[in-house]
């Protein structure tokens, strides 16, 4: 399974933005400094996030970025899709065509394909607000908390 830096960094930056932009727009330089992410890399990610309608830019003095919609309406899966970071768990580039010679599927294809679906469903059920409020999981205790609408 591979989760690349685009997805991880985009989520980190968006959580930072959600936390810091409650009063005023936030500059990418501030996010880059706090999260230790390259400013040029953030600029590339935010161009994609803006195109996807997840952030909006504010020009002029005191400008920067704000969330385009509230943190409780911004799903982690939306961020991942916006920066073109699908979580691939099969080795098949094309799920309808197999990864083996002759287009056959490997013996464990369905297992990894289903895991990919579960990961997507999990990320679709978690919002920026869930991450900010630490409602994802109690890491030390293993205690699970409610996940947005998925907990109902």
TrEMBL record:
InterPro entries: TR_Rrf2-type_CS, Tscrpt_reg_Rrf2, WH-like_DNA-bd_sf, WH_DNA-bd_sf. Keywords: DNA-binding. GO terms for molecular function: DNA binding; DNA-binding transcription factor activity. One of its GO terms (cellular component) is cytosol. It holds the Pfam family Rrf2. The keyword DNA-binding applies. This is Rrf2 family transcriptional regulator. It comes from Marinicauda pacifica.
């Amino acid at each position: 399974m591979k989760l690349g830096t685009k997805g991880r960094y985009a989520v980190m930056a968006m959580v930072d933005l959600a936390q810091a932009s409650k009063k005023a727009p936030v500059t990418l330089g501030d996010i880059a400094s706090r999260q230790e992410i390259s400013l040029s890399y953030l600029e590339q990610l935010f161009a994609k996030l803006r195109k996807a309608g997840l952030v909006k830019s504010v020009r002029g003095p005191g400008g920067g970025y704000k969330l385009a919609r509230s943190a409780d309406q911004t799903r982690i899966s939306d961020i991942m899709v916006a920066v073109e970071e699908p979580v691939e768990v099969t080795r098949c580039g094309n799920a309808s065509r197999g990864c083996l010679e002759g287009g056959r599927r490997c013996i464990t294809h369905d297992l990894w394909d289903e895991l990919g679906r579960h990961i997507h469903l999990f990320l679709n059920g978690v919002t920026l607000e869930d991450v900010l409020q630490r409602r994802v999981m109690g890491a030390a205790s293993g205690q699970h908390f409610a996940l947005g609408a998925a907990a109902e």
